[in-house]
Amino acid sequence: MDKKSKTHLKNLDQKLTLLLRDLKTYSDAKLNEQPNPSEWSVLQIMQHLMKAESGAVSYVKKKLSYEPALVDANVMSSFRSLFLNIALTSPIKIKAPTQISDEALLTNLTFWEVAKQWKIQRNELEMYLESLPAAYFTKDLYKHPLSGKMTLSSMLSFFNKHVDRHTRQIRRTLKKIDAVKQV
C-alpha cells in the first residue's frame, strides 16, 4: 500500500475508534431511535457508512477479478476526487444509492454487533489493500456513483470525508432524540 493510502487508512481507523468510543455509552434503544420516519437512526447511519465502504471494496475486487486493462490516474481523477470531497463537506443533501439507503438498513440492532462488524470489515479492508501490488495505487480502480473513477487513495479519502459528514449527522440525530448517555 502506498504512503498516502496508509495515512488515509490510519485517519479512518482513528475516526472509527473515536466514534465507537463516544457512542458506546448510549443505550441501544436511543441509537435505534429515528428523529422522524424520514431520518435515519444512529445505527442506521453507521450501517450506511459500513455498506458504502464494503460496496466500494467489492467493486474494486470484482473489477480486479477479471484482470481488466487498468488506466493510469490523471488530472481528471484528482478533479473527480476533489469534487466529491467538496460535495461531502457542503451542506447540500446527497441522495444515497439504493443499495446503501433506507431499504437496505436494518432496525433494532445492538451497538456492539454493529461496532464488531465494522471493526472486522475495516481489518479486512486493510489486509486487502496491503495485499495489492503497489502499481494498483496509481490506477483508476474505484468508481464512485456520483463522481466517477479515482484511485484507491482517493477512495480512502472519500471514506474519511464520508465518515466526517455522517459523524456530524450522528451528532445532530443524538440532539434531536435528546439522547442521554448511560452512566
General description of the model:
- The protein is mainly α and 183 residues long.
- Helix content is 61%, strand content 3%.
- It has helices spanning 3-23, 28-32, 42-65, 75-89, 111-131, 152-176, and strands spanning 142-144, 148-150.
- The protein has a two-stranded antiparallel ribbon with strand order 1-2.
- Helix 1 packs antiparallel against helix 5 (111-131) and helix 3 packs antiparallel against helix 6.
Secondary structural class: mainly alpha
Domain module count: 1
The total count of helices amounts to 6
Q: Order of strands in the sheet with the most strands?
A: 1-2
Q: How helical, in percent, are the residues?
A: 55-70%
General form? globular
Order of helices and strands: HHHHHEEH
CATH homology superfamily name = dinb family like domain
CATH class: Mainly Alpha
Strands, total number? 2
Question: Keywords, please?
Answer:
globular; 6 helices; 183 residues; 61% helix; two-stranded antiparallel sheet; Four Helix Bundle (Hemerythrin (Met), subunit A); mainly alpha
